[in-house]
Amino acid sequence: MKRTYIATLIASMSIVTINSHAIEIYKDDKNSVTVGGFIDARVISTQGETEIVNGVSRINLDFKRQLKNEWQALAFLEWGVNPVGNSDIVYNNRFETVQDEFLYNRLGYVGVIHEKYGRITVGKQWGAWYDVVYNTNYSLVWDGNAAGVYTYNKDDGAVNGTGRGDKVLQYRNNWGNFHIALQTQLKSDDFYTCDIADISRASCQALWDQGNNAAQKVEFNSTYGASLSYYATDELKFTAGVNRGQFEILYAGGRKQSVTDLIYGVGMTYGDFNKPGWYASANINKNENHDTDNLGRLIKEAVGSESLVSYRFDNDIRTFLAYNIFDAGDDYVIQPNFNADPNDVFKRQFAVLGLHYFLGDDTILYIEARKDFSDFSSNDAEQEAQMSQTEDDGIAIGFNYTL
User: Fold this and answer.
1) N or C: which end of the chain has fewer CB within 10 A?
2) What number of other Cβ atoms are within 10 A of residue 278's Cβ?
3) How far apart (Å, rounded) are the C-alpha atoms in residues 319 and 357?
4) Of the listed ranges 9-18, 52-61, 366-375, the one predicted with least confidence
5) Confidence (pTM)
6) Contact at 8 Å (CB) between 167 and 158?
């Protein structure tokens, strides 16, 4: 019975990898508090610039309280930390690397867990879809942008719940070798988009208010997601999942369009990335109206795939090779987009080669290099240059200190 409870807890918390390194700072008969996270800083050279930047550093607090009838309450709070100050460089990673604030919200949820009935949580948390694809997301610098997690031009997946989803109600449980996650986002968000490059949010809304045809208002409603993981052996795992949302596009000219945001796919993983020996993982997805190109235009349909192969030697050196491709092909932009060329091509494609040296169990000195193979062809030369601006070759050397 105790073994079952531990398995449930590990499965339900498996995507919050930092918890495995948490330090307990308080414990009594019913309550415990642990602190976790890491500090990461790096020197990166890409897009013609070399700078010191933040490596998505974060700190978190994990609370647990024993309740009656074998229930346990839990709460989790995580903040992103920028220890190096603001940086102007923008490269192919998550938005957090260019945050102005020293401290900003990443995760925050509360819930209950039971060895038989599973786990229920409410708040900002990793989505069920992340269970399907997170096993390829281990590059410290250039993590994947093809798995449909960090949507809307590399944001954190908060809007549609595939990444660190906002306003998520989630249920997790496991039966034998199967683990399930079910979730919904109960929300209604309104925002504005414009077919104009480099326009501010306020200016875009002003165009909408003026009735300009280049402006649209988007009403994004609740989303729903589910994932299934099957542990075939201690080393081999299979995953599958889906996430679906619905939103309305209101054009300034009066036209209204209902759009379905959909992603579904499968994954496979062998080994443990943090243990000596071989590790391999791959996933593939099909998505519709789920992401945007590098100009912020909604993509009708695309196929994304991520793969990673790693080997950790006994001398505390880990090497890996990752490959990512997100292919929308041509004629991918929802019409009408008044600055869209029907022959535009969007294919984000790159490889990452990395070497990590473990100075200690949770302290890593690393170097990672990215080679870009993307294709952003367009008959509009200026548009093509803007599309390619955030995708480039690069190299980074950094230090990761995990609590």
Assistant:
1) N
2) 13
3) 9
4) 9-18
5) 0.88
6) no
Percent of the chain at pLDDT > 70 equals: 88
Q: What is the average pLDDT across 214-230?
A: 91
- Residue 317 has a CB neighbour count (10 Å cut-off) of 12
Angstrom distance (rounded) from CA 240 to CA 71: 29
Q: Is the pLDDT of residue 97 over 50?
A: no
Q: What pLDDT shows up at residue 9?
A: 42
Tokens 């209950």, residue located? 112
Percentage of the chain beyond pLDDT 90 is 59
Amino acid letter, residue 152:
Y
List of residues 6+ apart from 214 with CB closer than 8 A: 194, 195, 196, 207, 252, 338, 339
Report pLDDT digits (tens) over 51-91. Answer: 999 998 999 999 999 999 999 999 999 999 888 876 444 44
Separation of alpha carbons 302 and 387, rounded Å: 17
Domain map (residue ranges) of the chain = 2-402
338 dihedral zone (left: phi>0; alpha: psi -120 to 50; beta): alpha
Name the amino acid, one letter, at 336.
Answer: P
Q: How far is CA 226 from the centre of its chain?
A: 16
Which numeric CATH code is attached to 2-402?
2.40.160.10
Scanning the structure block, which residue is given the tokens 């062809």? 377
Nearest of 369, 371, 350, 361 to residue 312 by alpha carbon: 361
For 28-177, where are the E strands, in sequence order?
Answer: 31-46, 49-54, 58-66, 71-81, 103-114, 118-126, 164-175
In the predicted structure, residue 92 carries a pLDDT above the cut 60: no
Q: How many CB atoms lie within 10 A of CB 102?
A: 12
Sign of the dihedral defined by the CA atoms of residues 233, 235, 238, 244, in that order: positive
Tokens standing for residue 1: 């019975």
